[in-house]
Structure formats: structure tokens, C-alpha cells
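Intended use. Records such as the Vegetative cell wall protein gp1 entry shown here are meant for training and evaluating sequence-to-structure methods. They are not intended to support clinical decisions.
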Amino acid sequence: MTGVLTTLGAKAAERWIALLALPGALFLAFVAATWLMRDGRLFDVSPVVAELSRPHRPAASLVLLAAAVLVGAAGAGFVAQGLGALVQRLWFATRLGPPGWALTALRRWWWKRADDAYGDELVASNPDMRKLNLLLAKRDRICPVQPDRPLWMADRLRAVGERVHGTYGLDLGSLWPRLWLVVPDGVRTELSSARARLTDDARLCAWGLMYLVPALWWWPSAVIAVGACVVAWRRGRASCDTLSDLIESAVDLHADAVVEQLGINAPEGLTRAVGDQVTERLRKD
């Protein structure tokens, strides 16, 4: 047990350095460099070179400076971590006020157009299967079900619950804690890794937002900030899509184990009738 705790502690330290300390130190260095360059030409690094070329400071000053950098880097890292949590709340928000209503209405209208085009081709006298697949893929890129959230990621995860309920009659919210207890360790690892990647993408977006601060005195920093946020958004969409597929796959492959553990008779497998019994048993309301 001591060995396990030691290994976990080492991994936690490595993760802290990788996710908080090093990006925080880089952020502090960038802020300091752009602050020195604020009064000169746009890309004139001579003030930075001059500062680095100053005579060596006393050892005590260097120790204090190193301690300040470590504390500052850790502080910047924790700010990014907290801001990353807020970014995730934004990505998966159910409502965002009037702007959210407008976005939801726009996405619903966009989805309805794609769904109508797919439906028209589906009922045609001689439907083209290739065109049908393209139209279905176009609609599902907007959302696999009719949109009800302002942003794509929130709807993508919501769609998993809608599809699971529509197919099996299962309430994913009440099923998930029980399903987590019966799936194999490999499945948990894959799901946890996908969730961690999504958190990392949100943290990258948070770092991008923090790089807007030096843009107040050195505008090219805004380009870095916008670039980081765009990359984080695209990576976050991919991670959310992967996580959603893994969650739905876990239900498809292992929900029968929950049915078996509950002692519900299911000779024909997980049908809607069986799913309704499971949901009634789990929700208890």
C-alpha cells in the first residue's frame, strides 16, 4: 500500500509540474518580457536582453526571486485551473440568457433545415443512399438530436441521454453510477482519459484567456490568446465527441450487466419494457 501511495504521489507531482507550474512560469516570463518591451518598438527585445545582461545579483536576492517565480507560477496555474472550470461550465451551459436563446433558436433552425432535407430525400421514390448518408451526416454534425442548448458540446452530451432513453427507455442520469460499478477497468480507464482530455482542453482555453492580460500593453499577445482559444475549442469539440461516443458505447455493451445485477428478467435482452423497469427501479420516484 505504501508503494501505491508513493507512486500516486509521484504522478500527482509530475502532473502538477506539467499542468500548472511550467505553463505558469512560461506565462510569467511572457508577461515580464512584454512589459519590458511595452515602450519600445513592437518586436524590439533589446530591453529584455539588457535586463538579462545586468550584473549578477546577490545570492539572497536570487533565492527570493526564484521563490517569487515559483509562487507566481503556481498562482497562475491555479487561476488557469479555476478559469478552466468556468470555461467548462460555459461549454456545457443549458441556458445563457437572451444570447443563449438566440443561439439555441439559430441552431434549431439550422438543424430543422438539415432534417427536412434528409426527410425529403428519404421519402423520395428512388432515394440515393450516398446522398442520404451525406445529408444525415450533415444533420448529425449540428446535433444527433434536435438542439436544445446554446453551444454544440452541451447538446452533444445531452444527445447521448436522449438516444439512450429513446432506444432502451433508460434514464442515463440514474443509470450511470450503477453502470460505472459494473464496467471493466479498461472501460473506466478509457472514459477517465477522455474526460481528462476534455478538462485539459478547457484549461488550454483558460490559458489563452489569460494571455489577453499582456495584450493590454503588447497587442500581439491577443493573437496568441485567440489562437489558443480556437485550438482549445476545436480540441474540446473532438474530445467531447469522443467522450460522448464512449459513454453511449458503454451503455450499449454493459447495460445488460446492470439489468442482471438488479435481478430483472430479460429473456429478450434490453428491450424498452426492460429499460422502463430498470429506470423505475433506479429512480425510485
